[in-house]
Amino acid sequence: MSKFFKNLMRKKTLNNTNYDEVNYTDMEGSPVYGALPVDSYLVGGYDSEPIKDIRLVFEGENKDTFVLVPGLLPYDTIEIGGIIIADYWGDVKEQVEDPCITSPSPFGSLHDRAVELYYQIKGGQVDYGLVHSHQFCHKQLGETYEGLVPNWSPENPIVLIGKGYGATTALYLQHLLSTNFFGQHTAGKMIKGIICWSAPHRGSTLPYYLGLEPGSRCLVHPFSILQLLLSLIHLICYFTFLEKLFNFGLNDKFGLAPKSEGGEQSLGSALSARSRFSCFGDNFLADWSVEGARMRYAGDEKDKHYLDPHCIYLNYVSTGRTWKSKITGHYWPRLSWRNIPTWFISIMLGRYKLATDAERQVLRTSSSTYWQNDGTLSVHAQLPPPHQHVLMNIALDQRLYDPVEHEITPGVWYNLYVNDPSQTVLFNSVPSFITLSFIDYIINWSFTSHFINSLSRHSESFESFYIRFIEFCERSFRFSSKKSHINYDDNVSFSDSSAKSYFPTTTSERTDKFTSDKAGLEWIHKIETMEILTSPSKMLYWMNQMQSTLDNGSPLSETGKKNDFSFSSTTSLMQGPMFIKAKRRLTADDYKASVMNCDGS
């Protein structure tokens, strides 16, 4: 225990040290965090070559190398008796052939995970950096890897696909590459593309609900779920046979093994979760929280993450899994949501409110901003950091519009709001446990199949009853409790008349609808046009639709005049591209010419 307090005092001394004055002559060969200015292309550029639109290549001789980065609590595949019942990357593997699957520490900090990710891809012994390892009092060197892509270089870039915490890990890796942290003349353009699914760009409020003290970044309430989780992690690391099974990757770095096996931990410290890992802030809690995320876009200049002009960025925001109560403004999971564990987490996130002082200092906005969620993460938290440019927002309601299969502009975010994962190319299904053979047999019974079909036909009625029941309970609780004891959203109206007017409703009506912005609508129009020009049958279909509309009379515009020259893909008459002036019968050449003029302007 005395060694623990010595390390704690050592950390305080290092925190007060001005690293600009540190003599690095003794650190030759060791990575130095912040060795070069962040993204040096901003002040001089990596090169002078023009930047063009980029397309990801999924097959063929020149296909891109895809590297998969998991998030918190990951798993690869779960098998029972040789049968795969769960696959974390099952959806991505359907589109990506032979991807490289990495396994950074599931509970490590973004810095440690990004460093481990680099050496797992490139090969070599993990080196967390001398300054970083001294600051957080853990070993500088880690495991040695052969390398999944040994020839990784700016001339041979890779594509990173990350889910949740793995997406922010991928972005942090690019940040380290752009600062030449590894001392091997690295650059941000070593990554061709970063694809994020439900990424906590702006942090999550879930750690605060589970027990993290707001404003501390590492202090956990002693009687909380988070304290229980940390104790469980320490106990698994204490019993080495369990650590080999779960492979948390914390024993050698933080000395969480028992003293009899060369570690620093006793059974008492394991039960209380007192260690350098839990107390020094170099763990998942610090970077998963809202405060840790803010350091990546509102902290020191050397810590800010900038987008590389040679890399494409796709951000899939998971939406549509919750509905908003008109009584309290809280968000509740949809009845049709089948993921039961995250169902309960969604209820917590949909109503959690920090104290006023914590809101002002930590969130810097109302707690209700973080209420809408996808089960594990707020929708607001999935938005890219405010200092990074978003080129367009696309409501992804058709797989055709997914930019992953088209040429896209590098150096900016494509923000994709996904209500149904089946409309995406890579994440077309939520990973779940596959039913076993006897379950399939039961489902195929005639009685069971009829019951399931009946449920699906009356799902809207069940959801309507579900909403009415929840709001009835909220209304009853509101009238039976003192108003001062209930934290309601300030922007919610509580009039009974307004609540009654929403009685005949469904969850689809209560779900917030995300729409494409102007740039997103132009993108959709462009993709539709390209699809039609490359398909004669579709071109003939839309021309027939156009001609029948002209023969029956042009629709009226908002001003009351006949609009005989254009109507867009959002009209109810035809879900297709915009058409230019036409008072006569159109031909294929006329349509192609009009589209070329549109694109040229």
Automatic annotation (TrEMBL):
GO molecular function terms listed in the Swiss-Prot or TrEMBL record: hydrolase activity
Cellular compartments annotated: Secreted
Keywords: Hydrolase, Lipid metabolism, Secreted, Signal
Keyword Iron-sulfur in record: no
Domain Lipase-like C-terminal residue range list: 62-178
Record bears the keyword Hydrolase: yes
UniProt cross-references to Pfam families, sorted A to Z: Lip_C
Lineage: superkingdom: Eukaryota
Gene Ontology cellular component annotations, sorted alphabetically: extracellular region
GO biological process, one term: lipid metabolic process
InterPro entries in UniProt: AB_hydrolase_fold, Lip-like_C
Name this protein carries in UniProt: 8828_t:CDS:1
Species, as recorded: Dentiscutata erythropus
